[in-house]
Amino acid sequence: MKKNMLPKPKVLIFDVNETLLDLESMRASVGKALNDRNELLPLWFTTMLHNSLVTTVTGEYQDFGKIGVASLMMVAKNNGIELTGEEAKEAIVTPLLSLPPHPDVVPAMQDLKKQGFKIVSLTNSSNHGVKTQFENAGLTDFFESRYSIEDIKIYKPDLRAYEWVLKQLNIKPEEALMVAAHGWDIAGAKEAGLQAAFVARPGKALYPLAQRPDYIVDDIGQLADILRSQ
Fold it and tell me: Which has the least CB within 10 A, 36, 43, 87, 144?
């Protein structure tokens, strides 16, 4: 859905996990670690995001992978499940690094590259993590650069994360389009002055109290079609 006529962005900035990569493939490993409670996967992911913001607010930075392991242990404890740190790590690390892309991603990225867009990623994952994810998912060649908050130790959606990547790209906020499947990421990007496109993946919703995104699409192919018409 196109809300209004906007200037064509100079750079497309993509979130990675759930926006490009399908987290559902982790359901089996995380569910197994949680005594086959597969339905707890979304709770684990949101707990991980919550705790990443805690580290930003307190100034005590922790690696996203370590936060993921700690968060899984918290979910296990809160649900009466015994889980060691090593078991939590085993359930997360390998599956997270080998997530497949959503079916729409590769064709849409090919389309966007043909349209001439500069495409980069901005993720809360580590530099090594996203490099490995892109290699395993076959996405490396679509991106001119990969940016990780690891370099500044400030997690999205803190506005400083978006301001930092804009500085690296040497562009104005309105010249960038943030593409994400998370309402919190869209909220941060809009407050930082970027254009924003929300990819409405199953189970994802916008934050009602935040600014509305400029585009709402069912998949990235729809976004490519919209940008082509600008």
Answer: 36
Q: Which residues, including other chains, have CB under 8 Å from residue 29's CB and lie 6 or more apart?
A: 90, 91, 92, 94, 95
pTM above 0.85, yes or no: yes
35-62 confidence digits (pLDDT tens): 999 889 889 989 999 999 999 999 999 9
48-42-209 Cα angle (round to 5): 80
pLDDT for the residue numbered 1:
43
* Cα 70 to Cα 68: distance, rounded to the nearest angstrom: 6
Q: Is the dihedral of CA 170, 173, 176, 182 positive or negative?
A: positive
Residue 12: HSE in the Cβ half-sphere, 13 Å Cα cutoff: 23
Q: Which of 15, 152, 30 is nearest to 83 (CA)?
A: 30
Alpha carbons 173 and 171: distance in angstroms, whole number: 7
Distance between CA atoms of 13 and 32, rounded to whole angstroms? 34
pLDDT tens-place string over residues 172-221? 999 999 999 999 999 999 999 999 999 999 999 999 999 999 999 999 99
